[in-house]
Amino acid sequence: MKHYYKLDEWNIIEEGFDADKNEISESIFSLGNGYMGQRANFEEEYSGASLQGNYIAGVYYPDKTRVGWWKNGYPEYFAKVLNSTNWIGINIKINDISLDLAKCTVNEFKRVLNMEEGYLQRSFKAALSNGNEIEVKSKRFISMTRGEIGAIKYSLKPLNFKGKLEITPYLDGDVMNSDSNYDEKFWDEISKEVNPYEAYMMLKTKKLDFHICTYMTYELTKNGEIIKPLVALEQSEKYVSNTVLVDCIENDEITIYKYVANTSSRYYETAELRQRTKELSNKAKNDGFDILLKEQAHSWKEKWKESDIVIEGDISAQQGIRFNIFQLNQTYTGEDHRLNIGPKGFTGEKYGGSTYWDTEAYCIPFYLSTSEEKVSRNLLLYRYKQLDKAIENAEKLGFTNGAALYPMVTMNGEECHNEWEITFEEIHRNGAIAYATYNYVNYTGDKSCLGEFSFEVLAAISRFWAQRATFSKSKNKYVILGVTGPNEYENNINNNWYTNKIAAWTLGYTLEVINYLSENEPERLSELKEKLNFKDDEIVIWKSIIENMYYPCDEELGIFLQQDGYMDKEQILVKELDKKHLPLNQNWSWDRILRSCFIKQADVLQGIYLFEQEYDTDTIRRNFEFYEPRTVHESSLSPCIHTILAGKIGNHDKAYEMYLRASRLDLDNYNNDTNDGCHSTSMAGTWMAIVHGFGGLRVMNNKLILNPFIPKHWCSCSFKIMFRGALLNIKFTASTLQIQNENNIAVNLSVYEKDYSLNGNDLLEINIL
Ligand code: BGC
């Protein structure tokens, strides 16, 4: 699907209607504001293939688990983000015939996602079966300033007829999740009311009692003048609508402005939901579409000021990275520590909208550099608030003494995944959660979280690792048995290098934090030790594990081994495979995949990326050159890590090749699955590929380090990052590097291994040799 969408720096543009690609476009043109989001379904009826999706962040449903072969310890339910009330609906009848793009001739169809100002626009001409031709233009957005508000402007122009237009704005809560395990509907109606020019509906989830209230108001104009035609009211179960009839002649322009507020019991008392929702939607209507749109443009301008990346000389790459940044900013805004980032954001149901290790391993670096500290801190708090559940989860699996195993997939802290090899064995996720604290403290310099809450998380995770490692007499080392590493194409393996590494690292980091607290916050440390019943004997064991952890390696090749026995496998390279076998997960039996040496995603290399400062460049090169040719990158999270390491070892062509796989993954539907939703968390990986990969950004010892190189195909690249109060605009070409400090806070830098201090508002220019 390469370049199905037109190339443009700030817009995603679809020209011409291709019903076969509609579900892909519904994902691509998704809208969101961190509080709610939706797929780009049409406002008017559409009987063709479509995945309906409206989601409210944090409103989920514990759908009863469906599994072929039950195993003790499996979770009873899979929490999934709920498809909720369709609030965009505006049905149209033209002289009694429904406007339905699946049933008419569509001309001049154009859909545009304006990423600079944050709205979705659509226009087309449709010829109906009765010969009537109509032009439609719509614009809608989900407000970044007023979290609960969405607004739509929908205009109709008869092109060759006069007669009646029937316009039906509605709210439809009679919706389902397409992935409902037992084909159940998850909503019950609580109340509704429909009046002329307004209607509301309150629904409640069948379990957990999440209430959501949706209120619509609207206004009509004819050729720019407000009109108030008579209204027919309609309601049925979980459905409310108004219908108006408007007489029109050729070239009249009839516009409906629909303003909708969506509130939930997560933020308001149930008793006040209705009134509050009404006020919000009325206020939006009184302020009007143009004001709301202006606010929207302003909010996005502010977002771009802090997070934009500009690539000159490669419009395809420019569009790709802006699309990724746009989607990330639509998905999570960091105001509410109870929210997180699902792998598909608000763009589809897959992965249940739940939290994965993706957040800590991939998204936190993006939010750390492009938003205020609070945003990433809230992601740390999210896990802290779920610590009790993580301890319970570990207890269920037989661990004791406050050991915590965070879930692989979760909404509220409880594990939802139920494939044993992942639920029970993909335990490296615990390490990523610990690493996120290090990452936050290292980047921001803010250590207050350690005593406030992070030590508790670190201690609980460390207790888990201490119990999960076993001492092997034959090896005279600690080993970790029966795990799945990041490479999910291997299960139940022993001594996954990455897992062993991150386990021992967590123990070491927790000890560092204990030292820090004992020096700086001794009283708080004693309080915490008492609360956790923490004995210094534990430290003795941790130290012994750190010193004696077993790390598989191949001395002859000079590489770390992904797991015990990896070299016993038949060693074939991906390039030696006939292309028809790829992707393996669609062409090979699971058994064949497990027996092969092929690696789904960065695994040893993931560890080398995290702990890069521990390895010299030759070690990194040897491992990269061994693992990259064996990696099939069938997780979208993989190529970005390979980009960064290829950059590190100076293999710039490889870095660029890997970057291309990540950057337009969804826009070009590279994995043939964008219809399910966009790969939102891997979008943060794409950002990392540019900023950490091409920009060489790292933070060490309170210093920002940069080692930029520009891919051959680009004229220049610039990115913005926030670092300890400074806002830096870093621009590089093949021969020059400019770093403009756009704030008045000084910052210490190391660029190409030379130290600089950059004062507020100063510009540093360096010639690249
Ligand atoms: C990857 C995991 C990831 C999940 C959600 C899987 O395909 O292997 O590492 O957490 O997708 O993005």
What does this structure look like?
- The protein is of the alpha+beta class and 769 residues long.
- The strands form eight sheets. Strands 1, 9, 10, 11, 12, 14, 15, 16, 17 and 20 form a ten-stranded antiparallel sheet that branches. Strands 8-7-13-19-18 form a five-stranded antiparallel sheet, with no helix packed on it.
- Strand 18 (231-236) and strand 19 form a beta hairpin.
- Helix 6 (373-385) runs antiparallel to helix 9 and helix 16 (604-610) crosses helix 18.
- It is globular, with a radius of gyration of 27 Å.
- The two termini are 39 Å apart.
- The model has no long low-confidence stretch (mean pLDDT 97).
- The protein binds beta-D-glucopyranose.
- Residues 343, 351, 356-358, 486, 488, 600-601, 635, 637, 681 line the site of beta-D-glucopyranose.
* Oligomerization state: single chain
Largest sheet: 10 strands, antiparallel
Shape: globular
Summed up, the helix count is 20
Q: How far is the first residue's CA from the last residue's CA?
A: 39 Å
Strand content: 25-35%
Mean pLDDT: 97
Percent of residues in helices: 25-40%
| Rg, Cα atoms, Å | 27 Å
Bound molecules: beta-D-glucopyranose
* Low-confidence residue ranges: none
Q: Tally the beta strands.
A: 33
Structural class by helix and strand composition:
alpha+beta
Please provide a brief summary of the model.
The chain is α+β, with helices and mostly antiparallel strands and 769 residues long. The protein has 20 helices and 33 strands.
What descriptors fit this protein?
alpha+beta, binds beta-D-glucopyranose
